[in-house]
């Protein structure tokens, strides 16, 4: 457990897609690491590159249409240097994923129990009976009521909250070291969202797995994250502990995002909206991508990429205005 | 900026004291096919006898989880679907009686959640905006001029946007256009059904500011449907909480948010996410998913998830109890005569 090398590290990751309108630069040189047992939230709006980053960590992006560069290391292995066969061994066993829409992610023609058992048999070469027994344990672990009966259920026979629990059970089937969760509670109702977030938090604490959670919701980050990375136009513009980033954001985009999020106490006051809209990823400006919407824009912002500045409290901010540690 | 009204604002018939809209016993049950050919027909009680009214110039927020009937209610009010029973009185005139549906829809307009699906992909923005005014008898040229003016009112540059098609615009721009189109007939009531829910937070704040401005400049009344309790708190004067086709609580936003009276409202509020990583939520308020509106529980529909449920809750459906200050709740706990052991009087 006291292994000093991170479980996962990402260095200079770039992802670009060929589209009819040109090359969309979805992810533009991001770096981060994930320690064992750590919960990292990638927080950003649509088009910020958070989900693309997550998919890149499982090598799920379509290889024909995407150009990927940079280095992703998982448990000491260079992900993009591995043959496909080895990547399949990693998926589900070392890294596994929970998607936003369980109805689309689960197979509609197999029962929940069969889908979980299949994963266990694939990775651990145990008997079908043993895999079935483990599947039942997993459904109980994610608190699905009358789990034994639910093993025989098809995804369409379950409610949204139950389906998401079932997908979490499937993702945890082989005790992965890293769980990737892409907006896992966005499609759920408020009361169910809270149930699933608390479940994820409990499972993380019990198993000690590391989690990367992608979300657009500051509340989800506040409820789950140890560290938060705020993304904008394919770059991490601010990265630090959850308390640092969520309570005293430094990057003008992060500040603006929190100011424009409606919360109690704003009634009858005008909202501090960020003007404009996120940039077109096929035509990113040469300088800071947020500059056109930034109240603190100066000449230096448009000249080149802003430097990544490490502040005195160890957080990293991508802005010419950030003050570096002495 | 001068406002070009090619259509005159709809007249104020009943005067300021008359509610803009009175809804009485509105009901919609959908037949659902059972599983299997000979299975009995089932009924989804989507909206089940709801009664409320909305004053001129106010914003009524409607909250609830999926299946609670909030969107069905919106469609019933617009008469996009026919109610099974119940009546609607718009500014003193009975809808379907003195007030024809055509005139109702001039006075009441709607903005939907999906900004792309609600625009015709083959019409330019100018054509979309001018469509309804032309139908209502405005000459084409004037409707086009009004369209340009409306775009400026919703904060878009008419010169660049008028000739474009929906797919050439961002989600935020498209939603501004849907708002402009809703205003093209100069309605008095606008129903916003999750109108900002699909937008990114930074854009959502822009559109909320715009809605506040337009309400003033067009003298509007809003019904604001949302699953986001913070947004409803921000924008609404009164809130209506729905659960499985019923209104469980209704009242001024400040009162409901300060002291929610219904156990469901309390559970819903306590499921709000914290924004402070050092003060996280530690326990869930209620277990389980909202039940299906097909064959809802007897008596109080929330009783199957309610921590306070007693025998009376299964036996009798709670009526709305007046708590004063325009705040009402449908829960036996608030009716000392209900027979619920924990019931207490609220004076």
Automatic annotation (TrEMBL), chain A:
CDD domains: ABC_NikE_OppD_transporters (cd03257). This is ABC transporter ATP-binding protein. It comes from the Bacteria. Residues 10-258 form the ABC transporter domain. Pfam families: ABC_tran, oligo_HPY. It comes from Siculibacillus lacustris. GO terms for biological process: peptide transport; transmembrane transport. It is a peripheral membrane protein. One of its GO terms (cellular component) is plasma membrane. One of its GO terms (molecular function) is ATP binding. InterPro entries: AAA+_ATPase (IPR003593), ABC_Ni/Peptide_Import (IPR050388), ABC_transporter-like_ATP-bd (IPR003439), ABC_transporter-like_CS (IPR017871), Oligopep_ABC_C (IPR013563), P-loop_NTPase (IPR027417). Belongs to the ABC transporter superfamily. Keywords: ATP-binding, Cell membrane, Membrane, Nucleotide-binding, Transport. It is found in: Cell inner membrane. NCBIfam families: oligo_HPY.
From TrEMBL, chain B:
Pfam families: ABC_tran, oligo_HPY. Residues 21-269 form the ABC transporter domain. It is a peripheral membrane protein. GO terms for molecular function: ATP binding; ATP hydrolysis activity. It catalyses: glutathione(out) + ATP + H2O = glutathione(in) + ADP + phosphate + H(+). Keywords: ATP-binding, Cell inner membrane, Cell membrane, Hydrolase, Membrane, Nucleotide-binding, Repeat, Translocase, Transport. GO terms for cellular component: plasma membrane. Its EC number is 7.4.2.10. The complex is composed of two ATP-binding proteins (GsiA), two transmembrane proteins (GsiC and GsiD) and a solute-binding protein (GsiB). NCBIfam families: oligo_HPY. Belongs to the ABC transporter superfamily. Glutathione importer (TC 3.A.1.5.11) family. Part of the ABC transporter complex GsiABCD involved in glutathione import. Responsible for energy coupling to the transport system. This is Glutathione import ATP-binding protein GsiA.
């Amino acid at each position: 457990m006291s292994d000093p090398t991170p479980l996962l590290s990402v260095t200079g990751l770039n992802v670009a897609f060929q589209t009819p309108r040109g090359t969309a630069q979805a992810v533009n040189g991001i770096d981060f690491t994930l320690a064992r047992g750590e919960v990292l939230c990638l927080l950003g709006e649509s088009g910020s590159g958070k989900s693309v980053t997550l998919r890149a960590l499982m090598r799920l992006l379509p290889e024909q249409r995407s150009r990927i560069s940079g280095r992703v290391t998982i448990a000491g292995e260079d992900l993009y240097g591995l043959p496909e066969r080895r990547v399949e061994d990693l998926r589900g066993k070392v890294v596994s994923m929970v998607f936003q829409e369980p109805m689309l992610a689960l197979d509609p023609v197999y029962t929940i129990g069969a889908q979980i058992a299949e994963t266990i048999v694939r990775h651990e070469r145990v008997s079908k009976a043993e895999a079935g027994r483990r599947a039942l344990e997993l459904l109980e672990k994610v608190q699905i009521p009358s789990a034994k009966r639910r093993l025989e259920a098809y995804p369409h026979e379950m409610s949204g909250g139950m389906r998401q629990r079932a997908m979490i059970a499937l993702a945890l089937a082989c005790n992965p070291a890293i769980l990737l969760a892409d907006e896992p509670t966005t499609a759920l109702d408020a009361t169910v969202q809270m149930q699933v977030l608390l479940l994820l938090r409990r499972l993380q604490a019990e198993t000690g797995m590391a989690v990367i959670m992608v979300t657009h919701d500051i509340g989800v980050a506040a409820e789950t994250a140890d560290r938060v990375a705020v993304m904008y136009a394919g770059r991490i513009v601010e990265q630090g502990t959850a308390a640092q980033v969520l309570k005293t954001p430094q990057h003008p985009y992060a500040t603006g995002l929190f100011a424009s999020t409606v919360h109690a106490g704003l009634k009858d006051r005008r909202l501090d909206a960020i003007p404009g809209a996120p940039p077109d990823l096929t035509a990113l400006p040469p300088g800071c991508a947020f500059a056109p919407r930034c109240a603190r824009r100066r000449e230096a912002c448009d000249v080149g990429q802003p430097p990544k500045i490490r502040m005195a409290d160890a957080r990293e901010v991508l802005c010419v205005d950030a003050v570096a540690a002495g | 900026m001068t406002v070009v009204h090619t259509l005159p604002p709809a007249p104020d018939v009943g005067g300021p004291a008359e509610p803009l809209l009175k809804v009485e016993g509105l009901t919609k049950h959908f037949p659902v096919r059972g599983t299997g050919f000979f299975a009995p027909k089932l009924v989804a009680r989507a909206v089940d006898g709801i009664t409320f009214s909305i004053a001129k110039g106010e914003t009524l927020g409607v909250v609830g989880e999926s299946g609670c009937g909030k969107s069905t209610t919106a469609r019933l009010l617009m008469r996009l679907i026919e109610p099974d029973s119940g009546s609607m009185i718009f500014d003193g005139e009975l809808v379907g009686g003195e007030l024809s549906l055509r005139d109702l829809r001039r006075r009441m307009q709607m903005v939907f959640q999906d900004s792309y699906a609600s625009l015709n992909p083959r019409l330019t923005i100018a054509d979309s905006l001018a469509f309804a005014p032309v139908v209502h008898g405005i000459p084409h040229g004037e409707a086009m001029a009004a369209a340009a003016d409306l775009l400026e009112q919703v904060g878009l540059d008419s010169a660049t946007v008028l000739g474009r098609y929906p797919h050439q615009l961002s989600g935020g721009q498209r939603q501004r256009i849907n708002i402009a189109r809703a205003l093209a007939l100069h309605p008095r009531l606008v129903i916003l059904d999750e109108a900002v829910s699909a937008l990114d937070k930074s854009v959502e704040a822009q559109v909320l500011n715009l809605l506040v401005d337009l309400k003033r400049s067009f003298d509007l009344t809003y019904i604001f449907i949302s699953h986001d309790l913070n947004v409803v708190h921000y924008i609404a004067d009164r809130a209506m909480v729905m659960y499985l086709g019923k209104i469980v609580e209704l009242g001024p936003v400040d009162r409901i948010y300060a002291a929610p009276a219904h156990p469901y409202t309390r559970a819903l509020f306590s499921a709000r996410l914290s924004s402070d990583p050092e003060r996280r939520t530690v326990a869930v308020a209620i277990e389980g998913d909202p039940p299906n509106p097909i064959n809802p529980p007897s008596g109080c529909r929330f009783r199957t998830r309610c921590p306070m449920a007693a025998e009376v809750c299964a036996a009798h459906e709670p009526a709305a109890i007046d708590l004063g200050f325009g705040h009402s709740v449908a829960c036996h706990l608030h009716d000392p005569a209900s027979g619920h052991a924990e019931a207490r009087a609220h004076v």
